[in-house]
Amino acid sequence: MVLNLRVFINLLILIVAVFLFPLHVNAHKKEQNHNEEGQERIKSSGRLYQLAVIKPAPDFALVDLKGERLGLKDLKDKIKIVNFIYTSCPSMCPIIIRRLSSLQQVLKRERLIGEKVEIISITLDPERDTVQKLKNYADGFRAGGDGWLFLRGTVEQTKKVLLDYDIWVKKLEDGTIDHVMRIYFIDGKNRIREIYNLAFLQPELVVRDIEVVLSEN
After folding, report:
1. Is there a contact between 46 and 213 (Cβ–Cβ < 8 Å)?
2. Which of 63, 141, 195, 211 has the greatest CB tally within 10 Å of its CB?
């Protein structure tokens, strides 16, 4: 009886395997075909992902180190990397500037900076950050020039820009300014496509996002 039961179970397993194996093969083939189709779409599109349109980027009219008034519309169809700093910042701002400097070097090699991309650093402390201080700051980090603008406005203009871009600031008793760190990726149609924080502001990631947006044209 025991032997008959074992034989019956083994026979049942064999029958089930015979019926299920073709289904498994077909499913595997379908999955393989789907993956191959996906790979073809990736090759034909030329990019692995897309950046969503978050919202229109608020325009502004601020002054550069040459005394010229500039806004997003003046930069036409260029990609803009907009960030907010101040020259006496002891912590985050120097890190941001160094990473943007590395990004600038990569974009120089790719011949994108200035022609296709502009980096825009806006001071959030116009009372202390004069044009000369901003110039000295840029020179100290070997920043500026070649598609990198440092801008400032009046106190009221700066407040509006910070409000428009959701950059909160708080002046502390020691003179430092506590502020949120957001870096905006704005496309040629002046739409916000990405918002980086300090952790995700990596030159290789930003360059890849730039290539993705440029490939849309």
Report:
1. no
2. 63
Residue type, 114: G
Whose CA is closest to 54, among 198, 180, 213, 176? 213
What CA–CA distance (Å, rounded) separates 164 from 184?
12
The one-character DSSP state at 113 is B
Summarised one tens digit per residue, pLDDT across range 119-148 is 999 999 999 999 999 999 999 988 878 899
**Rounded to an integer, what distance in angstroms lies between the CA atom of residue 67 and that of residue 130?**
11
To 10 degrees, what angle do helices 92-109 and 203-214 make? Answer: 50
pTM: 0.77
Instruction: For residue 2, give the H/E element and its range.
Output: helix 2-45
Sign of the dihedral through C-alpha 73, 76, 80, 83: negative
Q: Count CB atoms within 10 A of the CB of residue 112.
A: 19
